[in-house]
Amino acid sequence: MYNPSVTAREQEALERSTGVRLCRYEPDYSWAVEERLGGLWQPGKGLLRSLTKEEGEFIRNERLLCALDFHYWTRYAWLLPDAAVGSGDLVRFAPWPSQQLILDEVARLEAVSYEQFLAYEPQDGVLVAAPKARQEGISIIAALLKMHRLTMAPFTLAVTASENLDKRTALYQRDERVHSHLPWWLRPERTEPDIINERLTFGKMDSSVIYQDYAQKSSLAAGEQYLIGHLSELAQGDQAYVDKLVELDYFPAIPQSWRTLHILESTPAGQGGWWHPFIMSNYKGKGRWKVVFIPWYINPFKYCRIPPIDWQPNQHSLLHAQKVKETSEEYLGRVVELTKDQLYWWETTREEYRKKGSLTFFLTNYPATLEESFQFSGGSIFDFETIDYYRTRTRPPGGSYVISEGVA
Question: Do residue 286 and residue 315 come from a single domain?
Fold first, then answer.
C-alpha cells in the first residue's frame, strides 16, 4: 500500500483476522536487528541455527508490515545512487523531492481507487505518466514500487520496457540489485532459471517480471494481464512503432483494479511522435492517465553550481527565475524561488548549449514547464533564440510582466 489511510485499514483488517498486533519499529532498531540476523543465513546452507522466539516474531512482524506498506519496506531497500550526488557506494533509499512527488500522486490515486473498490465501482488503479527533466530519479522509484510488489505479493506479474537492449539491461540490473540486497528473510528465492535482460522469476511467490524494448519485433506485454508496469524513455525510438506497441499491445494488458500500478516516464524529445500528444491530452484531463511533470529545478542539490562572488544573473536568467516562480505551483503545489546556485548552473549550462546552436535540446533536457519541454525542432523563418526570447516574455491573459530584482 502507498496511502497511509489505505495501509491503516488493511493493517487493522489483518490484525483482526490473525490476532497478531504489528509493531512499527524505528528504522535504527530494524537495521540493528537486520545486521544481527544477517549472520545467521548462509547461501546454499540456509539457517546456521534455529531462530529464537523473539527473532522469529520480529521476522514475521517485518514481513507482514513490509507486505502491507511500501514506505515501511523501503527501509530495507539499497540503491546505487546517482553518480552526481553519491559516493559510489550503495545507500539506503531516501526519496528525492522528484520521487516524493510521484509517491504522493501514487498514494492519492490508490486512495481513490480503493474507495471505488469498496463501493463496487470500476477502478483504474494507479496510472501515472511522467514527462521529466533528465536524471531525476523516476526510473529508480518505479523500480522500487515494482520490486516491492513482486517480492511481497504472490501471483504478481510485471512488465518493464525501454528504448533498446542497453537500456533494458540497465533496468534489469537495477531490479536484480534491489532484490539481491534485501535481507534474507525478505528476499524471495529465484527458484527458476532467469533469462538475463528478459525475465526475473520468484518461483515460490509465483511472481515474475519480463523485460522488453521498443526495438523488438514481437508484441509488448502480450498474452497476460499485468498488475505492475514501467515503461521508460517512451519519447525515444521509432514513434510510429512505439504507438503500436503501447496503444495496441500494452494498454489492453492493464487490468482495471485498485491494485494496478503502471508508470510511464520519459525525457521529452520535442513535438510530434506518440509521447507529445499523449501527454498533452491526458494533462488536459482527456485520458485516464495522471500526468506528473518533473521540472529541472525540483531537486535543488542536483543541478547547481557555485557562482563567482561578484556574479549577477543576466536578464534572461532573471526572466527564467520569474517563470519558475509563476509556474512552479501548478506542477509542485508550492511556489519555488531558484537559489543563486541553481540559476548560475542554468545560465552557464544554457550558454554552453547556445554556443553549439543546441538551445532546443537544452530546453528539452532541462525544462521548467511542460510546454517548454516539447520544443518544435523543425525549420522556421525565425532562429530559436528569437523564438525563445518572446516565449520567455509571454504571460497568460491577465498575467503580469515582472522581472525579479534578485535571486534567493
Answer: no
Q: 30 φ, ψ to 5°? A: -60, -40
Note whether 40 and 139 are same-domain residues.
no
Cβ atoms of 151 and 159 within 8 Å: the answer is no
Task: Return the SS3 of 272.
Answer: coil
**pLDDT tens per residue, range 109-155:** 999 999 999 999 999 999 999 999 999 999 999 999 999 999 999 99
Number of structural domains (the chain) is: 3
At position 196, the amino acid (one-letter code) is: I
How are beta strands 91-92 and 78-79 bridged, if at all?
antiparallel
The H or E element containing residue 324 is helix 315-332
Q: 70: part of which helix (H) or strand (E)?
A: helix 70-73
Indicate whether 167 and 199 sit together in one domain.
Answer: yes
Residues 206 and 239 in one domain: yes
**60/54 Cα distance (integer angstroms):** 10
Q: Residue 92: enclosing H or E segment and its boundaries?
A: strand 91-92
Percent of the chain that is helix, strand, coil (3-state, to 5): 45, 10, 45
Range of the domain at 389: 295-408
Q: Which secondary-structure segment (H or E) carries 141?
A: helix 138-152
pTM (2 d.p.): 0.88
Q: Tell me how far CA of residue 387 lies from CA of 131, 337, 343, in angstroms.
A: 22, 25, 21
Asked whether residue 240 carries a pLDDT value surpassing 80, the answer given is: no
246 in the same domain as 105:
yes
The answer to whether 230 and 143 have CB atoms below 8 angstroms apart is: yes
* E strands, 304-396, in order: none
